[in-house]
């Protein structure tokens, strides 16, 4: 006789009884219910928020979760009542290029918003009592500034990182920025890689003294702000710890596009042309990682035991298991600088967008892929979790924001043929100027394939040809972009690399 499968509803009945009998606190009951896989499988599109006239590069909820702030290539910042779809406020950011991130400062009555953008500027917008908005310039990176991180609970302190490799610290009480350091590559790359172009920064919510940065190499670097001497008397550029999957150490083809800390102090890292990895605190490589550590010659993590979320293989020694991160795979992260995030009241799930225009959701424990949702026609870059409920906001190359709530009557099932093998793009950053081209050309001698045969020169020649073709293609696309500025359906190369 076939037994009826136990669903999340039936699993919740004992918790409900225990809550009524006083054996389970009401808060714990709510958390267990909110983390139910049944709710994840019922996520469905609630509405589209449509007003921006360019790619939406950032979405973020306020602390209460009733307002969503967004920023776009159209240079505007919009505050939404996401439940009704109504716009509460829309204003020009003051930036001269695509807005990459916008966030509310805590305990500011949602009146203080900080932003960073492709023009390198970091700005603050202050919402006045009369409904007006004043924006002011705070500082500037020498290159695009992709991300900012706000110190948990602080209405004044935040950090930014940029493609110039610098990390800046801001205190809104003084209105000034302190450049903490410029992120340097590991020692054996100093002579051909001047800086690490930074894409992501995240602060440990349990210990705000610690923050992580990552970008154009394989390492996530962890820093302790307590080691910084504010009189500038010490070199703060040395990380306290490094994180990297063992098989990627020494792999110069990969970089990192997204970081996130969980409430349990786990570190989530999303690689371009690769997968997503979850690190615990004890998986660090220390302050001086060995770049000569052995790594797999095959970039497919499944070859070394990373098989659909498994964290070990029969041949793996116990010592190695302790430093092997959890893997999440199935999505594709090749075309844009994508974020990654946790989902659920206690970060029970991992979420990411994909080049295929879908949203991927995995169980954090075990790495099982449980949900794939069709979201955009092009690319999904941003996934933001609601601070209190099982609600998601997503955005990407399209000009709208999508709100997802667990309202579907039927539970979703996984589509067939989900997994997509990453396709190597060759270059993580768009080459947009002659200066960019020259910078890449100078790095070619050390990028060549290291073989004892004569194949090294041909590899370098291929890289040189690819650089020139990429530069020409980007120049052509820039001209096309100018002709198509008013065509909202045109997806330019600028969109893909914003």
| Residue-averaged pLDDT | 80
Strand content: 25-35%
Overall shape: globular
CATH class: Mainly Beta
Count of DSSP helices?
7
Total count of domains: 1
Structural class: alpha+beta
CATH superfamily assignment? Answer: YVTN repeat-like/Quinoprotein amine dehydrogenase
Give the C-alpha Rg: 23 Å
In CATH terms, what is the fold-level topology?
A: Methylamine Dehydrogenase, Chain H
User: In what order do the strands lie side by side in the largest sheet?
Assistant: 1-28-27-26
Helix share, percent: 10-25%
> What does the largest sheet look like?
4 strands, antiparallel
Q: State the total count of DSSP E strands.
A: 28
Give the CATH architecture: 7 Propeller
What is the terminal-to-terminal distance? 56 Å
Low-confidence stretches: 1-10, 294-321, 421-433, 439-460, 474-498
What keywords describe this structure?
498 residues, alpha+beta, Methylamine Dehydrogenase, Chain H, 4-stranded antiparallel beta sheet, globular, WD40_rpt, WD repeat
